[in-house]
Every structure is written in structure tokens, then in C-alpha cells.
Amino acid sequence: MTCNGFISSWPALLQALESHFAPTFYDDPQGALFKLQQRASMNEYLTEFECLANRTIGLSPTAYLSCFISGLYPELRREVQALQPLSLPHAIALAKLQEEKI
């Protein structure tokens, strides 16, 4: 990019990096997190959940817990809710155990 004259200064380099790698104004990881539903294995769902949760700022631990549980398959969701996990790590462990059980 320097050879082509696209980057001529440090601020121009920073702007190029930001426009290439930063999320767009239309990207809404929090909205996607709220709508996330399990479609495959627990590990795949957890990977998607963590990817979106890591890009979401300002939610309480209770909100993350609620989003995680509400996105589980209905049969897993009922089992995990019945055990009343108090934290996200606890809910993840319970969901994995229930998946193995089912």
C-alpha cells in the first residue's frame, strides 16, 4: 500500500488498518448474541457464543447467562434451567453434561 501511495503517514496506516479489521457501523454483535440459537453440538454453539460475547461490551454476568441458556436446544434449556446455574461457567458445564446424557 505504501508503494501505491495509499499510505503516506502513520495516521493513514492506522486508518487503513481500522477500516480493514474493525467492525463496521452495521455490525451488531450484541443483537446477534441475543438471537443466537444452538444449531449443532454444544461445542460449536459455545464457540459462536464466546465469539459474540467477546465482542459485546457492557452486559452484566446475568445477561450473558440468560443469553446462553435461552439459545440452547429446548430439551437442554429445560434441563439446565431446572438446575438453576448461578454463573455462566456453571451453566456451560451443566449444558455439556446434559448433552452427553441426551
List the helices and strands and how they pair.
Elements: H1 10-21, H2 29-35, H3 42-54, H4 61-70, H5 74-82, H6 88-101
Quote the beta fraction: under 5%
SSE run? HHHHHH
Q: What are the segments in which pLDDT stays under 50 over at least 5 consecutive residues? A: none
Helix and strand composition category: mainly alpha
Bulk shape: elongated
Give the N-to-C terminal Cα separation: 54 Å
Structure description:
The mean pLDDT is 90. α5 crosses α6. The longest helix is centred in the last third of the chain and has 14 residues. The protein is elongated and about 60 Å long. With 102 residues, it is mainly α. It contains six helices and no strands.
Which features does this protein show?
single chain, 6 helices, mainly alpha
Q: Quick summary of this structure?
A:
With 102 residues, this protein is mostly helical. Helix content is 64%, strand content 0%.
